[in-house]
Amino acid sequence: MFKKILIANRGEIAVRIIRTCRELGIETVALYDESDIDSLHVRQADLCVRVPSPETFLDVTTIVQIALAYEVDAVHPGYGFLAESATFAQKLTEAGITFIGPPAEVITAVRAKVKVLEAVRAAGFPTVTHTGDCLDVHDLPTIQANAARLGYPVVIKSCRGGRGRGERLVHKPEQMETAVQRASAESRAVFGNGHIYLERAMLPAHQIGVQLLGDRHGHLIHLGEREGSIIVGNQKIIEEAPSPLLNEAQREAILAAALAIGRLFNYQNVGTVEFLLDGTGNFYFSEIKARIQVEHSLTEMITGIDLVRQQILIAAGDPLPWAQDDVPFHGWAMMCRLNAQDPWQNFLPSPGRLTDVRLPFGPQVRIDSYIYTGCRVPPNYDPLVAKVTTWGRNREICLSRMKNALADFLLIGTPTNLPVMQRLMHTTAFARAHYNTDFFTKPPVNGADSEVTLRDLAVITAVHFARRHQMFNPTTPARLQSGWHKDSRRLPE
Amino acid sequence: MSKILVTLNEKTYEISFDLPAPGQDRLSVQVNGETVLVQIPDPAAPVNDHTWMLVDERPYELLFDPDLRWVASKKGLHPVDVRDLEAMTPRHRSGDGRLKAPIPGLIARYLVNVGDEVTAGQPVVILEAMKMENEIRAPMNGRVEAIHVDVGETVARGTLLVEIE
Hints:
The structure holds two protein chains of two kinds.
Chain A: E1 4-7, H1 11-24, E2 27-32, H2 40-44, E3 47-50, H3 60-69, E4 74-76, H4 86-94, E5 98-99, H5 104-111, H6 113-122, H7 140-150, E6 154-158, E7 168-170, H8 176-191, E8 196-200, E9 206-214, E10 220-232, E11 235-241, H9 248-264, E12 269-277, E13 283-289, H10 296-303, H11 307-315, E14 332-339, E15 341-342, E16 348-349, E17 352-353, E18 356-358, E19 365-369, E20 376-377, E21 384-392, H12 395-408, E22 410-412, H13 418-425, H14 428-431, H15 451-472, H16 478-481, H17 484-487
Parallel strand pairs in A: 1-2, 1-4, 2-3, 4-5
Antiparallel strand pairs in A: 6-7, 6-8, 9-10, 9-12, 10-11, 11-14, 12-13, 14-21, 15-16, 17-20, 18-22, 19-21
Helix pairs in contact in A: 3-4, 4-5, 12-13
Chain B: E1 2-8, E2 11-17, E3 26-31, E4 34-39, E5 50-55, E6 58-64, E7 70-72, E8 77-84, E9 89-90, E10 98-100, E11 105-110, E12 117-118, E13 123-129, E14 132-137, E15 142-147, E16 154-155, E17 160-164
Antiparallel strand pairs in B: 1-2, 1-8, 2-3, 3-4, 4-5, 5-6, 6-7, 7-8, 8-9, 10-17, 11-13, 11-16, 12-15, 13-14, 15-17
């Protein structure tokens, strides 16, 4: 078993990994850069090392050097950054350090997104329609021709991508040039690689991911599915497990397909097989995510299995302790992502200092976060500040816990999407699980407040306005105002 | 006596009350002919965009956007418009042609040149922040008079980027 682990990540996922390491009695080494020193993971780790490189969490050479210098046994990459970098996994292995994730050759195989789609189709599973290869971003005519062949709308995707970064939806040929530039630039900024391919867009659709867990000894099981169809821009914001959309036959089919697809690539460690569902319930394979995902907390809630612990144990060579039929599934889980994004300004990122933070609590409410009162949300990293996950015996109880948790959550100092999340939870469409990827097109207004509440809100708005005005223009007390001009300059009689 | 007209979710409320004296924590407020009692928990605390108050016995914790165009309750996000009837002037709306960086970031590129005609809402500059490319849009119709910051430079929040006349 490992004695010391380096966490090559930051924010909530670093905090999450440190927690499990502590439970396992493993020492932790955290990384940070100076803009990110406030993040809670820096002070929770046993040691924290500043990354002396402008590339920070993307700098393979520097991070491998740090891993060697601090004599760690293994490196956990979290999600994003180097989580799906075969080069990183390879370099670590060569240095005698375990990469906590799938072996480098499995990463390479599942990251070749276009080849994966072809292999899955050859094995008899439906896939999304896509272009044949990574396209040259400067060769616009070829891109246009490919898009025309697929049929608009199309999605531009990063060959290295994930988490919606570097994705652009294109409705018309004339939008293509700008969209390609933007997608490629964003992909380069996030993944250090600007290659793209095209997929035919399915609008509206459902996004369903099946969690896989596989050891080094050939055992592969699934831990159920998650639905993440509510998105802003390209980022999932609300997810739940199980999917409210699938009936039992569909669920069985999709879980079996995910296991078969995982076996095609000899998948190991944790990973997710992602599918798109159209309105009629047909599912299409889209990609394999070779990492722990942001929404893994949902699966942990409905199975009681600590996925980060499993990642570490599998990497250390342990066999899976369960067969498929031993996996317990119970109840319902939901997760909301709170992002430092300004709902009043078209969801622009809003880094800054959180002057007041109050976290919700209560039964079956789980918070994953790196923030606290007074901390700064750095401008150079992901806007995710907190995840709220709730569990209930059924969807209704789970939803009411989520409503309460969000109502009790307080984030002050810099704008976040919290007010929008609170509102979404009160929509009838969400309560009935009537949603798809088109659900969120603009911030919903006019919430579920009663007449009396609305009147009270107006009253508070007026009092707030007057007090604010008063603060900036302090009034002179009436007794001092009256007669100053008339009387004070007059000589006493 | 302060007289304020608040339009919230397209319904208008006429609200009047005596401005609170320093330290006063209770206000009697007339709203559309009814009287409610407002309790300000800590009148000495600075007034900021996050506030909580009692109206009669009902507690409210609210978040206002800095321009007072929105109020967020725990269940909804409501557009508001506030007019001070005593001052007889609508409150100030920011709407001049100076486009400032709404967030700190890196100028990735400009989508317009000096002299171009732009319409309100048209993307003008791409600001890279939090690993995302963010479109900053024109605040009004007009012609681009000046571009103040070069591509590739990092700007602080509030830096003047573009002037539109």
